[in-house]
TrEMBL record:
This is Hydrolase. It comes from Aspergillus sclerotialis. It holds the Pfam family UCH. Residues 1-310 form the USP domain. Keywords: Hydrolase. InterPro entries: ARM-type_fold (IPR016024), DUF3517 (IPR021905), Papain-like_cys_pep_sf (IPR038765), Peptidase_C19 (IPR050164), Peptidase_C19_UCH (IPR001394), USP (IPR028889), USP_CS (IPR018200). PROSITE patterns: USP_2 (PS00973), USP_3 (PS50235). One of its GO terms (cellular component) is nucleus. The keyword Membrane does not apply. GO terms for biological process: protein deubiquitination. One of its GO terms (molecular function) is cysteine-type deubiquitinase activity.
Length: 891
């Protein structure tokens, strides 16, 4: 590295660091940080922001800039901000030299010379094999003869001459700009020259100086330079990437290692790879099966070369006295800058240690030691527990919750739970920390990407509240102590609920945390009746109901209130309603649907029955009816149905209140609407709700009407929902209803009476399992009964015959697979037994007609091989069986 230039830039005086000399000030910061920082890389953004183009505009970092152009611009801007003339002169001396533009006559002794400053030597590479050849062409120049003769003012005539450029003053640091970009006159576009161009590790610049060229017979001292840096361009003329290889210097010996700087990545580089990585040309041949060997141009090649005079490198070694090759030389920094970098390094190493996996083990060890000490020494009033617990909780929030891999989070959670359970003051400390860190629950429960952290944080807070609740009821404490613990518990509980309420707007943007958030509230709802009141007062029932209500129709005009949520839903974001529905169910369990709602502006009071009234807005959300008089709240929860168990329990709550709350008719309307949706498999939630209605309603006529409604609807389900409808009727067979005084036999009789309506479509259902199960149900409830219900059997046979005619004989006739009609044929055959002893002419005609239909069907029937049958079916119905449902409909 050019330590001398670094030291000069760091020690230069800057009088106006925030205005006219800001670039110099930012340069100091970049150089100082690159030397002393412990970070992987340095961000030069503020440095770049201070550079202005020649039009006095900021640099557009989104547009590729030629590095030679940038180099000239940067050095020009640096020089312009250096005030002291001596400093400016020294600045130029680092990389600046002088050229002599000569025109030497071949016919006389006159020479015309003009001095020009340079900061980089422009080297042609097209048609040149290496650097020496390019420099030789540089100093040989061009012959001026013929029409282009030079007019010698001294001789007063035109003479043949040579025009060339020679080096006069060569700086210690020499830069060669390889002209790899050209303008293609054919394509009229810039192009890149990727030809191979070699350059040596050492080069003697004496042959290219004006003194040598003026008198080549004089022996001169070699002026040797060593390669110390290569800037590489990878890409094309229009786009690409720059990176560099730099020799570390000065070093303790003459050997110097090389380093690759590629954006934020810094790594060791083997200098023996320079020819392959920097010369350009063609890469190794690649063999193609059809085309033979193929060679490609290397798009990565040297663009700027950096050489340093060997004598100056030796001088730097004696001045800076490097101790070891692996320890770079450091120069003194301005005190303020050095102190700031030291502070940043300390903060970095602290953060580095904090994010080390070992830190979480240290925190766990501190917690375990605290547990041992507090238990053995019984120091309930010690401040030690506060310090250790705060450290552990800070580690959870600031480190573990944000780490890519939350290793150790379970261990910290376990130790915190142990401390809360066994150390009396630990629970209070946890809530103290929550109150002093308002954003903690947001970071832990909402923002953390790790489910284990979100779950663990909620458990710790809930455990702390549970312990405070236990402490306030301890009988071995006096009244004052119990009151103190009671106050701590109440304040802590209300504080936690208030924080969760404040996080409600944030929740709408973090879908992954919905279950964690509502599960947290669900745990809090289990603390007691008073605590339920706190949740209700903070509006959580209202919030849950509003989320249930939000849909495309937006009957309640809630989209304007939940703009962020609605936008995410429109973009396809999925939100889980499982825990939300559980919380809604628990809160509704603790409200009296029959009580008059309280004003939204007043605090609700606990009723004599131990429940709370709804607010006016909550009551509106629960009771609002649609255009057909259906209960919209019930309809919406059944349409969403993300948590079947909670939905069934809410239906049970509504059924308990239906008679006195005038909800019977709206509930029936909602169920009827849902029982006719298409495709019919979407009816499953409404079928389950209808089962609960049958079990819980006090109105026998409405129960009968709904069973009849479902039975009549089977005819229109087509090829969807067969499993769900069959499951409904099999579950109805086992129902009882204490409120209406209906036993199992009553429900069985209703199903049997409706057999002619619901069974024929299921006997011809596309899925074999549905057909066979329907046949088995009919055998159990109808054909195996003694005596046979003749009227139902007759109606069933007639319905089956009509179904066959409508399905297969009414229109164009096609072949029928025998397995499809086998169950319904079996039912017709069994049903015709009911006509055996009947002699009426009408019945005889029907029997003959039935046989004719069966014969026609038989003519169309074909047998398919087993392997061609496509009737495999797995019972994946979302309709729960009666045993699975149990008493879920009973709150």
């Amino acid at each position: 590295m050019n330590v001398g230039f670094r030291e000069f830039m760091l020690q230069i005086q800057v009088a106006e660091p925030n205005s006219s000399q800001r670039l110099l000030e930012e340069t100091k910061k970049v150089f100082g940080n690159m030397q002393d920082t412990w970070l992987k890389s340095v961000d030069p953004q503020e440095f770049v922001d201070t550079i202005r183009t020649y039009e006095n505009e900021p640099i557009d970092v989104t547009i590729q800039m030629d590095v030679d152009e940038f180099y000239n611009l940067l050095f020009d801007r640096w020089e312009a901000q250096i005030v002291d003339p001596e400093d400016r002169k020294k600045f130029r001396s680092f990389y600046g030299g002088q050229l002599v533009q000569q025109i030497k006559s071949k016919e006389c002794s006159h020479i015309s010379e003009r001095l020009e400053p340079f900061s980089a030597i422009q080297c042609d590479i097209k048609g040149k094999a290496n650097l020496e050849e390019s420099l030789q062409a540089y100093v040989e120049g061009e012959v001026m003869q013929g029409d282009n003769k030079y007019s010698c003012t001294s001789c007063g005539c035109h003479v043949d001459a040579v025009k060339r450029a020679c080096l006069k003053d060569v700086p210690d640091n020499l830069i060669f700009h390889l002209k790899r970009f050209d303008f293609d006159m054919v394509t009229m576009m810039r192009s890149k020259i990727n030809d191979e161009f070699q350059f040596p590790e050492h080069i003697d610049m004496n042959p290219f100086k004006v003194e040598h060229l003026s008198d080549q017979n004089t022996d001169a001292e070699p002026d040797v330079f060593q390669l110390v840096g290569v800037l590489v361009h990878s890409g094309t003329a229009e786009s690409g990437h720059y990176y560099s290889y730099i020799r570390e210097r000065p070093t303790a010996d003459s050997r110097g290692s090389w380093v690759e700087f590629n954006d934020s990545d810094v790594s060791r580089f083997d200098p023996t790879r320079i020819p392959d990585q920097c010369f350009g040309g063609y890469n190794d041949s690649h063999h193609s099966g059809n085309l033979g060997p193929i060679r490609f141009n290397k798009l990565w090649n040297a663009y700027m070369l950096f050489y340093q005079r060997v004598s100056s490198m030796e001088s730097a070694r004696s001045v800076y006295k490097p101790v070891r090759n692996d320890i770079p030389v450091h120069v003194a920094l301005p005190v303020a800058l050095g102190n700031q970098i030291a502070i940043n390094n300390e903060l970095f190493i602290r953060a580095y240690c904090l994010f080390d996996p070992g830190f979480t083990y240290l925190v766990r060890y501190l917690l375990s030691r605290l547990h041992e000490m507090m238990i053995s020494e019984n120091k309930e009033n010690s401040e030690l527990d506060k310090s250790v617990l705060f450290i552990a909780l800070d580690a959870m929030e600031q480190l573990v919750s944000r780490s890519k891999d939350p290793a150790g989070s379970d261990g910290i959670t376990t130790e915190l739970l142990r401390a809360v359970e066994d150390i009396p003051t630990a629970a209070h400390r946890v809530l103290q920390w929550i109150e002093s860190h308002p954003a903690a629950i947001r970071n832990l429960v909402l923002r953390s990407p790790h489910a284990s952290v979100r779950d663990g944080a909620a458990k710790v807070v809930v455990a702390a509240l549970a312990e405070l609740q236990r402490l306030r009821n301890r009988t071995d404490l006096d009244d004052a102590e119990r009151m103190e613990w009671h106050t701590r518990y109440i304040n802590g509980f209300e504080s936690v609920v208030s924080i969760l309420e404040d996080l409600w707007p944030v929740l709408h943007t973090v879908s992954r945390s919905w279950d964690d958030y509502f599960d947290f509230l669900l745990l809090l709802s289990g603390f007691g009746v008073y605590e339920i009141g706190v949740l209700l007062e903070n509006g959580f029932l209202q919030k849950c109901l509003e989320m249930i209500w939000i849909d495309r129709d937006d009957h309640m005009k809630l989209k304007r209130k939940y703009i962020a949520y609605c936008r995410l839903v429109e973009k396809g974001r999925k939100f889980s309603y499982r825990q939300l529905m559980d919380l809604t169910n628990v809160l509704l369990t603790h409200v009296d649907l029959l009580a008059d709602p309280c004003s939204d502006s007043k605090r609700r009071q606990l009723l004599e029955n131990g429940k709370y009234p709804l607010s006016e807005w909550e009551d509106n959300l629960v009771r609002t009816q649609g255009r057909n008089g259906e209960l919209l709240f019930l309809k919406k929860i059944l349409q969403q149905y993300q948590n079947p168990q909670a939905c069934r329990q809410i239906v049970g709550l509504l059924m308990n209140a239906e008679s006195e709350a005038d909800l019977l008719e709206p509930i029936c309307k909602a169920l009827e609407d849902g029982l006719r949706v298409e495709p019919a498999e979407l009816c499953a939630p409404f079928l389950e709700a209808t089962l609960i209605f049958c079990r819980r309603s006090s109105d026998e006529d409405q129960i009968l009407a709904l069973i009849d409604f479902v039975a009549k609807g089977v005819d229109s389900i087509n090829n969807s929902g067969g499993k769900e409808h069959l499951a409904f009727f099999t579950n109805v067979l086992t129902q009882t209803n204490e409120r209406a005084g209906l036993d199992e036999s009553w429900f069985i009789s209703q199903v049997v009476e409706k057999v002619p309506e619901w069974s024929p479509p299921l006997l011809l259902y596309p899925e074999k399992t549905v057909r066979n199960m329907t046949l088995e149900v009919l055998r159990q409830i109808l054909f195996n009964k003694d005596p046979l219900n003749i009227e139902v059997a007759k109606e069933l046979v007639q319905s089956c015959v009509d179904r066959l005619k409508k399905t297969y004989l009414a229109g164009p006739r096609h072949n029928i697979e025998s397995r499809v009609v086998e169950p319904i044929n079996s039912v017709i055959s069994h049903g015709l037994e009911a006509y055996r002893h009947v002699e009426s002419e009408e019945d005889q005609e029907f029997v003959e007609h039935a046989h004719d239909v069966l014969a026609a069907i038989d003519d169309l029937t074909i047998d398919l091989p087993e392997e061609l049958a496509s009737e495999d079916w797995e019972d994946n119905s979302i309709m729960a069986s009666d045993s699975e449902m149990g008493m879920l409909g009973t709150p």
